[in-house]
From TrEMBL:
Residues 2-281 form the ABC transmembrane type-1 domain. It comes from the Bacteria. It comes from Microbispora triticiradicis. Coiled coil: none annotated. This is ABC transporter ATP-binding protein. The lineage of its organism: Bacteria, Bacillati, Actinomycetota, Actinomycetes, Streptosporangiales. Residues 314-548 form the ABC transporter domain. One of its GO terms (cellular component) is plasma membrane. Pfam families: ABC_membrane, ABC_tran. The keyword Ribonucleoprotein does not apply. GO terms for molecular function: ABC-type oligopeptide transporter activity; ATP binding; ATP hydrolysis activity.
Length: 556
């Protein structure tokens, strides 16, 4: 920082020294020979030195700003990764991405701008001081021309800002349209709607063309007008300085200096006019990044009790939960799941099955009541260690870009090839080879294009065998897989379920039949609870669900 300040002062002094020395030499023109050579040598030396100092100053600034942005991006990315799932309900991935990259860069450009402006302002003060020292009246004349230029720059800044924000808005619209059409491309293709999608895009693209042209026209006016105003101001100084020189108040060298100083003042002054709004934008960007870093976690803990192993007994007492204030999913929810019990959760859509699973997995926090695991308040347990003992298999497990082996090894940090092979062994080698034709070294694409739902489930189950969780939460896919793959998955599941507490949001009859207990969820409460045959005999909600949904899965 000190080095940077010294370079700012040094390069400003050098830049200001050039017109000062030249003006002095002009006044000594009659004194001797070789003046032109000495003058030229001085100008070259000063230019080289000033270039060197400016280079060092800018390199130092880049190093400083780069360091700050690097740390800010690390902290923002770290904060985004630490956020609970609930955070991503309100903040889309795109929004978080623009906080971590776009906003941190916005902040960096303001830092660079500020450092440049500080050095330029220092030069302005230096040159202004010399002009006033030469002649106060001339200094006042130059000073009087500055507000005119400043006012023009401010007015243009407003115009430029309006044009820029219109361009930003329309670009956001273009991006959103492209994003949406690409997301739904398979649907568009299957309905033969490509031309309609193109027409939608063309409409916003025409809008963006019009806005761009308007912005170009506005910018085309700004610079020539500012140059004209600068020319007028120079004319005033030429006239007045000339008069003072004729009157003997100024030497020709001082007159030259005043004109040079004026030329050097324009740029910082016009830049200062646009500085404030850019500075505010940068601060707003920084605020957004800090809001991400400082925002509270949705899952609140009040203890860090160690968790090494769990028996897996789960109990909810008077649990209250809603995703948003005033919309409760659970009012006064009670439930007890014994250790190592397999519970199938069924019910109509919106009944609260996934919500229950998310609360047990600590993806969300509840607002009232108690959630006990092995008789201990879940909020008193070390969150990371607790989550490490709970394995969640979502309906559509995510596949990362990398080899199949990498994707399985994801289940346990540091797992090697032998561990992956062992996990496959536990699933059942025949089961695996029948459903997974690819080799462990084959590369999968992010999102899992080219990998079926059943295969993704098998990858996720292999990850679970590596992880060895004490509580398994599984959301079965609704999409039916072929009977052979279903049998493979069921075989893998029965191995995974043994000796663990399992909560499975069940869509397959085979899973329901195998469960120790079935919970029928309805409007945020347990409407029925019991064994398969018992619930069928009861003739209630489960019997209804069975008749309308599960019965068709019975083998003929
Ligand atoms: N992220 C969310 N934000 C706000 N409300 C939500 C969210 N997720 C679920 N809900 C609401 O909570 C209620 C319970 O939903 P939940 O997903 O638990 O039901 P479900 O029984 O699992 O349904 P499905 O079988 O369709 O998955 C529903 O009214 C749903 O609209």
């Amino acid at each position: 920082m000190l080095g940077s300040a010294a370079l700012v002062v040094g390069s400003a002094l050098l830049t200001a020294a050039v017109p000062v020395v030249i003006s002095r030499m002009i006044d000594q023109v009659g004194d001797g020979t070789g003046l032109g050579v000495r003058l030229s040598l001085f100008v070259v030396a000063a230019a080289v030195l000033a270039w060197g100092m400016n280079w060092a100053r800018q390199a130092l600034a880049a190093w400083l700003v780069g360091g700050v942005v690097y740390r800010l991006q690390c902290e923002a990315a770290d904060a985004a990764l630490a956020k609970d799932v609930a955070f991503y309900d309100d903040n889309s991935v795109g929004k978080v991405l623009s906080r971590v990259t776009g906003d941190t860069e916005g902040f960096s450009s303001v830092m660079t701008l500020t450092l440049n402006l500080i050095s330029q302002m220092f030069l302005v003060l230096l040159l202004g001081g010399v002009v006033f020292w030469i002649d106060v009246d001339l200094g006042l004349i130059i000073l009087a021309t500055l507000p005119l230029l400043l006012a023009a720059a401010l007015a243009f800044r407003r115009l430029a800002r309006m044009a820029a924000s219109a361009t930003r808005r329309v670009m956001a619209k273009v991006n959103a349209t492209v994003h949406e059409s690409m997301l739904g491309i398979s649907v568009a293709k299957s309905f033969g709607r490509e031309r309609a999608v193109y027409r939608d895009f063309d409409e916003v693209n025409r809008l963006s063309y019009a806005v761009y042209v308007r912005q170009g026209l506005i910018y085309a006016v700004i610079l020539p007008v500012l140059t004209l105003l600068a020319g007028l101001a120079t004319a005033v100084v030429v006239y007045q300085g000339g008069r003072f020189a004729v009157l003997g108040r100024l030497s020709p060298g001082e007159w030259y200096f005043a004109l040079q100083a004026l030329g050097m003042l324009w740029q910082p002054v016009t830049q200062a006019a646009s500085f404030w709004s850019l500075f505010q934008q940068g601060l707003a960007a920084a605020e957004r990044v800090f809001a991400l870093i400082d925002s509270d976690h949705a899952v609140v803990q009040h203890g860090n009790e160690p968790v090494t192993r769990l028996d897996g007994e789960i109990e909810a007492r008077g649990l209250r939960f809603g995703y948003a204030a005033g919309t409760a999913v659970f009012h006064d929810f009670d439930l007890r799941i014994a250790a190592r019990e397999t519970v199938a959760v069924v019910g109509h859509t919106g009944g609260g099955k996934s919500t229950l699973a998310k609360l047990i997995a600590r993806a969300y926090d509840f607002q009232g009541g108690e959630l006990l695991v092995d008789g201990r308040d879940v909020r008193s347990l070390d969150l990371g260690a607790y989550r490490g003992r709970v394995g969640v298999v979502p309906q559509h497990p995510f596949v990362f870009a990398g080899t199949l082996a990498d994707n399985i090894a994801y289940g346990r940090p540091g797992a090697g090839h032998a561990d992956v092979e062992r996990a496959i062994e536990r699933i059942g080698p025949q089961v695996w080879s029948r459903s997974m034709p690819m080799s462990l070294h084959d590369t999968l694409s992010a999102g899992g294009q080219g990998v079926s739902v059943g295969q993704r489930q098998l990858i996720a189950l292999a990850r679970m065998f590596l992880r060895e969780p004490d509580i398994v939460i599984l959301d079965e896919p609704t999409a039916s897989v072929d009977p052979l793959t279903e049998r493979d998955i069921q075989n893998a599941l029965s191995r995974l379920f043994t000796g663990r507490t399992v909560l499975v949001i069940a869509h397959r009859l085979s899973t329901i039949r195998r469960a120790d207990r079935i919970l029928v969820m309805h409007e945020g409460r347990v409407a029925e609870d019991g064994g398969f045959d018992e619930l069928l005999r009861r003739g209630g909600r489960f019997a209804g669900l069975y008749a309308t949904y599960y019965a068709h899965q019975e083998p003929a």
